[in-house]
Amino acid sequence: MLKKYFGKGFSYFMLILCGLIMVVPFIWMVSTSLKSQTTVNKGSVGFIPIEFVNYYIHDGKKEHCEIVAKEENLTVINIYDKDGKTFRESYVKVPSEEIKSSKRIKFHWDNYVEAFTKVPFGRYFLNTLIVSFSVLIGVLITSSLAAYAFARMRFKGRDFIFYLFISMMMVPQPIYLIPSYFLLTKLDWINTYQALIVPWIANIFSIFLLRQQFKTIPQDLFDAAVIDGCSQFGILWRVVLPISKPILATTAIFSLIGSWNSFMWPLVMTSSDNLRVLQVGLSYFAQEASSSTSLLMAASTFSIAPLLILFLFAQRQIISSFVTSGLKG
Q1: 63: enclosing H helix or E strand
Q2: What pTM, to 2 d.p., does this model score?
Q3: Alpha helices in 95-192 (DSSP H)
Q4: Any bridge partners for residue 58, and if so which?
Q5: Contact 103, 54 (CB under 8 A)
Q6: Please, what is the average pLDDT of the chain?
Q7: Distance between CA atoms of 91 and 93, rounded to whole angstroms?
Q8: Which helix (H) or strand (E) is 232 found in, with range?
């Protein structure tokens, strides 16, 4: 009995530990997004946005300042203006005993407003929504048709073609990126929505996932549908798809996540600001404004927020689909 409880306790401990390891980077990202850039530049790596504030106290007045250097009994400071961001006086030498420091917790929610307005994130959100949902519709249509054919229809070379499809999952994207660019250039699709949508409306993993589900449906249902006069498309539409809603929901979620997080493909296939998607827009803070770590973290946070909300609402369907498709364990 003791061994059983110890084993269960150890399992829970490892699960909690792994969960914490996975969630810590996300918490750090949110925490950093709420810090001032000055605090980040000073090397603050904690999770709580604590600021060390210096005050210059003279003639009973308390003024917010920043220490520049210390020289024996004197300290060189910059005195902030009333807005707390610009300096009213710079490089002022004052006695060191008139400088006092204190700690405070301050959340810089304005980082989110500044990050959203610094680059046209509204346009990037719109482009991402257009691309993601267009790809989603295409993936659901093509994957359902292909999966049904591979699972229920008999034709010569069916398994060979299916395994050929599966083998393409092993090819990394950089291998076919350049040939795809030349192909899209021939089609004059560079810098268009077609380049972002059409190549991704067929997804091999979605086909595999749906095929696994379709194979588990009892043959009796298909026989009954044929007796009732259903065509192959009628069976797919009236019988197969209605009882495969959890796996379809999971396919939709994976497709949305893939499109939402796509970076390399839209970066190569588009160069216009009007066609940039979210992940490419985030690169602005990583390249053109690399010192704005807090803004980059703020932009990253509100960029992935829709995906987190989606996952929280659909996590049951995802787990259910993995169980029914035989991918569990």
Answers
A1: strand 61-71
A2: 0.77
A3: 110-118, 121-152, 158-167, 173-186
A4: 61
A5: no
A6: 85
A7: 6
A8: helix 232-235
